[in-house]
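Archive entry: two folds, one per protein. Generate the first.
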Amino acid sequence: MSKRRKILFLTGIPALCILLWWILASAGAGPPLALKILALVWTTVATLWALRQVFRVLLWRVSGRLAFSYFLIGVVPIPLVALLVGVGLYVLAGFFLGHLYRNAAVTLQSDLQYMARSELDRMLGRKGKDETYEPVAATFAYYKDGAKLAGDPDLPERWRDFWPCPGNGPTLLGVTFFAGRDGRPSLVGGARSGSLAVLARFDGELDAELSHRSGIWTEVSRADQAREKERWTFVMSGREYPLESLKPTAPYEEIQKFFWHEEGEPTWQFRPWLVWLELTRPFLDLETGGNADEFVSATLTSSLDALSYDLIPGSAEVGFWVYLVFAGVFLGALNLYIIAVLVALMMIFSLSRAVNRLTEATRKIQKGDFSTRIQIYREDQIGALQKSFNAMAGNLETLVADAADKEIFERELEIARQMQHGLLPDTLHAPAPLSFATYFQPSRAIGGDYYDLLTLADGRHAVVIADVSGHGLPAGLRMAMVKSAFELLCEESSNPIHILRRLHHLLLQRLQQRDNRRAFVTATLAAIDRETGEMEIVNAGHTPTYRLRGDEVLEIQLPGPPLGALKPNYPSERFHIEEGDIWVWLSDGIIEAVNRQGEVFGYERVMEVIQSCAGESVGALTVKRAILAAVAEHKGSAAVDDDLTLVVLCWDPDAKPGEVAEEQDGSPEVPG
């Protein structure tokens, strides 16, 4: 989907939904739920797609990506850390508020125990210890032998051992809330000596007393009263964790007056910002000692000024040094951050400039300017990358030039190959009784083998097969010269030996010069008299000629030097051709065909293959196909190392010249 279609798809459908929504609203009918969901989904998709496009535009350049990376690493963590520090400070402040609340409750219970002990000393008529405590509003009950003698009628009639009554003075380890007959949380303290005991119960406003003692606004309530507030419950590992609302029940103005007693609007440090919840267990029934409720809930509210009064030392000198150290640490960290920002900006600018240079140089290379180079000023990985780019550009420039030269060379080589194919006949056409089947496969684009059917000066036909030493273009050029020489010499002479000797001297004059001293040519020339059936074979260092007559294969070996080397003493031999004879000439590429095990095809296999073709219906095409199939099976997937040339002659009075050309088209190929 194209970009324009995406825009129409993502913006058109939400616009259509909004239009339908407006039409339905104008008609007084509410939009259906499906339309609402569709509009919401497509609006969300369009928004996400738009954000993706914006990010792609902003982050396409490396500088944008680096800046965004620094933003994520260097800027985003700042508010996150600040939020984490703020939450941590708030939690610590809440813990400290809980500590102040618990300390106030413990001291209140301790004062009740001191007051009960004083009443017990008065009953015993003894002078009490000089103990410092803060008298509070309290009621008393007096007991003897566990039974109440007198006192507050709301207190139990019997003494209970679970009441807080230390044996050696009050304890400050914890506090226990009790529920009296009215069910409200309260604190008690007892004292006992022998059979006498006194119980003191706080008889004032518990919230006000705890607020006064702790310096923070305190609201104490039972668990069932706390549940009437907003409450959330989290379940983890099968256990419920209730979370009570932190909002106090008292009016805000009343809480504010607790921290600000003057006229006018209080400043921010005197406002009750901090709210915390504290749960206290156990909460026991004063009469039975059982659980009166699950817990006692205390909502604690404080201002920063009230909290700092207990946190910050009262000594101005100590506070000054604390502030000075904090300011020094803060300024030092700020300076380090500013330096880090400047270093990051310099690195972003430097890296983006280097990448922009690489991008521009790459664009020029893409347009074909391979002479482009980058000026290098860096000694880092980017500099090494720029050096590699310059080296790559230089190599690419050389490769492009070499590729152009290679393309020209390959074009010229193709022309030469086509010219060579034009020099070699597709097949050998001759009148009856001569019937030919030929095959030629060069090992490279241009081969050095040559075969032809020429006419001598006396009218006889001459079968020529030759192999120029070497491979490739030089061998092909020499082969063209040899072909021209054979055609001229055969027109001038009818003596095969004389033709080869003259060609030998020509090669000595033209080829045996400078670096061509090792060049030579092997050849076999067979002159055939069609009228008498006589054949004269002259060999110049070429492979043997093979004759299949009936079931007998004859290998005709005429050892002699190649053309252009040693003395031109070329052996010859005459034969009489009979009807049905098969004559085979081939190049050493077939004899020396090597498989992957390094084993050559060899002369014996050639004779065996020709022998296997013996029969009444044998012809030139049959023998040619059998030899090529055997060579292909022997080589397998091994590469062709030399040119493969094959000429097969059949003496058949009934042969038609047109048949040979069709046979040549169906010749099997030797892999490689």
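Generate the second and append.
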Amino acid sequence: MKSKSIKIGIFIGLAVLMTVIVHLSLGGKNQNYDAFPTLDNDVTSMSMIMKSVQENGWSGIYFNPRIGAPDERSNMIDVPGVDSILAFEMLSINTLLRPSTPRLLYYVLIVTFITTAWTMAWLLFRMGFDMFQVFAGATLFSTAPFHFYRWLEHLAISNALTVPLVFLIAFYMIGFIKYESKKKMIAELTIAGLLIGLGCPYFLFFGMIVWVVAIICRCIRDMSVKAAVRKLWPMAAAVIGFIITRIPAFIFNLQNGKNTSVYLYTRSPAEQEMWGLKIIQLFVPVNYSRVPFLSNIAKAYNSTGYIINENISSGLGMVGCAGFIILCVCMMYSFIRKTDRSSENWTLIDFLSLTMITLLLTSAIGGFGEIFNYLVTPMIRCYNRSSVLISCMCIVVVVFFMDRLKKKNRDLSILCMIALLLFGLNDQVRLPYYDYRSTADTEQEKVYSEFFGKVQNMKDNDMIYQLPYYDYPEAGPYKPFIGYLYTDNIRWSFGGIAGRDTKAKELYIDNGMSTAFLDGIRKAGFKKMYIDTDFYTDGGNGIIGFYKNLGTDFVKSSDGKLYVFDI
């Protein structure tokens, strides 16, 4: 009973700490949770999905009837922006709290920190560590740099709760984690496998690599393939979970045909070289470090290095780097000294060392991952995302050796763990020196709210065509979603899926400046024209002049960049 109370206390403590950390990282009391953080990057697309779920429930993950006009709806099922776990979190929070769309976005971010800390804590409890080691390890992993780099832009990667579950299953496979009750083992590992399958596909893919290494290790150690095969069933649960998530798309494609035009299905195998992992980036300090010397190193590399993109988020942080080096040293020690393979401790360390090397060889630019992409499928391209699993392993190793130290000197171990936790939080956590939202962002929020409030009150604005036309997704900017985000009931042309919702694209002729174009969109049902002058090299002077010459009513944003014309 006491043990259960302690565990519950740890989980509550982690939830409170993660909430405080995210709140402070957002700007603390100065943060306006009902204002969008920014609308110039992937946050805009994620915000669209959030609002779609608020308006349409679970179906809003796959279909949105207010974007992609004049088609009935945007068939987002072709390019799922969120996994099933993230969608469930969105729906649950929205059902319970009914927040504004920006507030829902922030709440989901907080939940990703909490759930990631919880699953890491569960893994560490299963490994037999004490409550303080569990609390420290879970905190260090959930606040690892990837979470602050990915942040709101890539909530699907921030939601790393399935990563510790990958290692829970792997440690069971190699025999490091044992269960007293078979029923409890089956229930827990089945749930873990299903969650991994329902979560981010990248973590499932890299998890499969980890599990293959575990099975090979088990085969060699026991000299029995049969014994290792008996440990495969959690993998089956993960596959079942993945299949469940793909059922809606499978049925939709059977009914409507496969969309081969969308970028998701036209990737090149060589893109692995663009989005692959770079070992140096595991060690580069975080670019938001409060230590000038460290932040200068990061800025110097990021401004001069080659192929700098989302792989900037691969950093492990100082504590993670220590774990990485420990694994490298242990691997050499184990190989040279021929350590006793029957020792559970060295079984774990050898497995983690081998897994780390395998992930590096697979994920590094031009590594085995690119061979996989050429021979099997190029769908997996962002191999830098394996750094989240490497981060988890490195934190596990640090906690493991702190536990070994505890058996020799308990007081010293506690002091070292406290020092590591405080050092790690100071190194990893991004705390703004000022309000997270700049004055410019706040003013822009006022401009959008005022402008789209006027648009919402216009008559006969059921459908609005947006200029210039851009395909969605990944072929253009996501900023055109602001019309959808700041209005209700109005249908917008932007957001139709490329290769599927093509009517808006077919209507786009003469760069939107001709009588034929206007006749076409009127026949399609459009009565208003939206123009964002930021997307025109001449500042929109040409196209705004054309529409003003029509002599119709229009509304203009206070900054003079957005227009809606009555056509």
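Annotation attached to the second fold: The first strand starts at residue 63 and ends at 64. The chain has 25 helices and seven strands.
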